[in-house]
Every structure is written in C-alpha cells, then in structure tokens.
Design brief:
CATH class: Mainly Alpha
Helix content: over 70%
Distance between the termini: 10 Å
CATH superfamily: MFS general substrate transporter like domains
CATH topology: Growth Hormone, Chain: A
Number of helices: 18
Structural class: mainly alpha
Strand content: under 5%
Number of domains: 1
Order of helices and strands: HHHHHHHHHHHHHHHHHH
Shape: globular
Amino acid sequence: MEQVDTRRAPALISYVSELTIVMVSIYLPYRAYQLGANGFLVGLVGASGSVVYMFAPFLTGRLTDRVGPRRLLILGTTTIALVCLLYTAITQPILFVAIRLVEGLGWAMIWPPLEALYSVSGSDLNKSMKTFNVAWGLGAITSPMLGSLVVDVSAVRWTMLVAAVLMGIALALTLTVRAAPVHQASLREAKGDGLNLWRSALLLSNAFAYGFTMTTISTFFPKYAASMNLEVTLWGTILSAIYAGRLVAFFFSERVMEAMGLERTRRIFLVAALCFPVCAVLPGTSAALMVIASFVTGVGFGLVYSATIVGVMGGPVAGRGRAAGLFESSLGLGSFVGPAFAGAVASSGLWLTMALPVAPILLLLLAGPASGRGRARLPSSEDNVGNQASHS
C-alpha cells in the first residue's frame, strides 16, 4: 500500500485553512458594516455560514469514512478559494448571506476529513489531536495580525483576496495528500459503536458553546471596539490574544488532561472562559486589561476544546469521520446561534453582543458532569493501536 501522508501536508492545510476562516469571520462582517449593513444584517452575515455547517459536517464526516478524505479536501479547498474571490467583487452586503451558505459547505468538506486524518496519524490519539490543534491554532493567532496589516496598507476588501490566495495554496497542498479510504468491512464492524447518547450530548454542548462564543466575539467585537474608538491594530491585538491563549492551552493540553481528567479540565476552564465576555462590558475597562482577559478566555476555551475533541474522537477508527462530523456540526450550530442572537440584540446596545456568551457557559456549568466520574479516562495509546488494527 502507498505510504499515507498524515502529518506534514495536513498540518500545513490546517494552518492555512484556519488562517483563512478567521480572516473571513472577522473582516467580512466588518466589510458589511462598511457597506452600510445594520447590526441585524451583520449578524446574519456572521451566522449564515453556519446554517449549512450545522448539518453538512455530519454528512461529509460519514462520507470521509467511506471514500477517504482527499477527494473532499480537494472539493472543499477549491470551493472556499472561489467563494473568497466572490467576496472581493460584491458591494451589496445582503449577497454575503447567500454566498456564506456555500462557504459553510466548503468548510464542511475540509475540517472533518482533516480531523479524521490526524486521528490515525499515530498510535496516541491525544498526541495526534494535540498536533492538529496546534497547527490550526497557529493559523488563528496569525490571522488577525495579517488581516490588520492588509487593512492598514490597502482596504478591508482585499483581505478576501488574500484569503482566496491562501486557499489556493491549501488546494495545492491537498493534491500531495495520499490516503486510502477505510475498508467497508471495518465500517460494518464499527456500526453501532460510539459514545453514550447522554454523554455525547453533554460533550457536544461544549463544542456548541465554543462556536457560540468565539464566532460572536469575532463577528461583533470589531464594531464594538470601533464604537470605543480603538484602533484597528489594537482590536486586532485583542482578538489575537484570545487565539494566543488558546494556542498556549493546546501546547499543554495533554499534560493538563492527564493530571486533571477530561471532566475536571472541562469544568474548571469553562469558568476561565467567562473572563473576556465579562471584562469587555465592564465600564472603564482598559485595552491592556482586555488583552489579558482575552488571553485567559483563550486558555480556558483551548482546554475545553481539547478535552471535548479527545472525548468525542475516542471511538473506533472506522467511525472517526462520523465523530468528527458530529463535533463540527455542534460547532456550526453554536456559530449560527451566537451571531444570530447577537444581531437581534445589537440594536439595544453593542455591549450586549459581548455579554451574550456568558449565558451558554453558565448553562454548561450548571448542567452537571459529562460523565459519571470526575476524572474521566483519556483514550490510551493501546486503544488507538487496537483501532488502527481494525482500520488496516
């Protein structure tokens, strides 16, 4: 069998894809404001990409299990590159809403296949997913700064052209990926395997809260910051801090989860995730304090994200695409609901858009543990080796 490349090219694709998705999520709503959109329409622009992403990743995840990730990655990167080119030509913000539906389908053909690739890239699931998280986390922290640089030297519009070029690079990298599809026999053996439904719902609700909070902040914080007369480079730094905190968390996630367990990690760092939403709406908060609060929230959500994805992806290799699809669909649901609600309340005060993420985080803290034990066991390297045996 041909050697499978599950490390270098997917790592670069993850980096470039996250660089692009963050740039679009920040600067496309800001571009809509420039073109005269009100708060409600900006909320629709921020949320519409997630309408399709609420269900499409589940379908593309299952397809990944059957046909392999490469074909979907080629379709996905091509779609996003073309969509970003369209964004540069449009001057009517209402059209962004329709095109973002196609964008959501494109991302659904990128992230579940990438997660499935990483989950079988080694004998230890925890280390593999850490590598994946660090790769896209580096893209996220780079994106606001790159976007700010583009805006400073040209205009917000041209951030979309940069995004299109980046996805062209991702497409070229995807063409170098070689990965065989999972055997149908392995799929039949895995049928019916998976997480307990109740525990799955509680775990996936963390992904929902993550998508809700991060997308709401990236969609509305630029306008909120502008209303406080913050420079573009300054609010870009504040947004970068949340991604920096998340990246730091990814580097140490394996050790933290081994020491504290998945459930304790999840609950403790959900509390830390409240820091920025609370701090951003307090009167007289300085920009320096917002940078610190943003970093703390990033650390909190980075560890919550890590604990959630390891818990969800711990099943058989033959069902990893399906698990990744469920995880990404939950992110998509949160990414739709957050900006949609924020857009509805924006007319009553932009500060409400920053306070809104407090609600789902508090609900998760009150919901109880996602498993019956405070120190839920991490999937071991032996678990992953056994699963890979059934895959091959």
